[in-house]
Amino acid sequence: MITIKTIFNKILEYKVELLKGNIIAILATLSTVAIPLLIPILVDELLLDKDKVLIAFIRDNIYETTLSGYVMIVLFITLILRASSFLLGIWQTKIFLSISKDISYFLRIKLLKHLKLVSLKEYEIIKSGSISSKLISDIKTIDDFVGSIWIIFTTKTSIGEITIYISFSYFRIFTNLSIFNIF
């Protein structure tokens, strides 16, 4: 008999893949969080002549260049981060969907083996279209449920992205106020 415990035990057989998918999701989130933070830092350092941490890092470790060169380097870094975020998101989706499809395949095989054991009298009472409809729709529902597990994690990481971005923005606003520049 297939129960929810059976499904969760089957999901737990994929611990390594689940861990890998979650680590990839965190890396994708970290690469996405950095993108909107680079441009304000660049504007503060180049145009407003603030701390110059990013510019000093680029000058010391990458290449010393002019104003437009720093902008192009940050643009290139932004494009690399965006591409890595995109590719990591695709990889994460592939991992979680393959787990979902493997579990639905397992359930289909188990149900089809059970159908071989059902007596012919049951098939005479119930229409064959009804049986196949139940098999298809029930497995699809379970497949959608298992496949939605990665969507829940992705939503949580997106909320984390927004929280980090808002926290960083407020930190920058409060540190730029003259009332906080006492020391």
Number of H/I helices = 6
SSE order: HHHHHH
- Tell me the overall shape: rod-shaped
Structural class: mainly alpha
Q: Between the first and last Cα atoms, what is the distance in angstroms?
A: 70 Å
Helix content: over 70%
- Biggest beta sheet attributes: none
Radius of gyration: 26 Å
- The total number of structural domains is 1
Strand content: under 5%
Q: Low-confidence parts, pLDDT < 50 over ≥5 residues?
A: 173-183
Mean pLDDT, all residues? 77
Q: What's the count of strands?
A: 0
Quick recap:
The chain is mainly alpha-helical. The protein has one domain (4-175). It contains 6 helices and no strands.
Essential attributes:
183 residues, mainly alpha, 6 helices, rod-shaped
Account of the 3D structure:
- This protein has helices at about 5-10, 15-45, 55-60, 65-115, 120-125, 130-175.
- α2 runs parallel beside α6 (about 130-175).
- It has six helices and no strands.
- Residues about 175-183 have low confidence and may be disordered.
- The radius of gyration is 26 Å and the shape is rod-shaped.
- It has one domain (about 5-175).
- It is mostly helical and about 180 residues long.
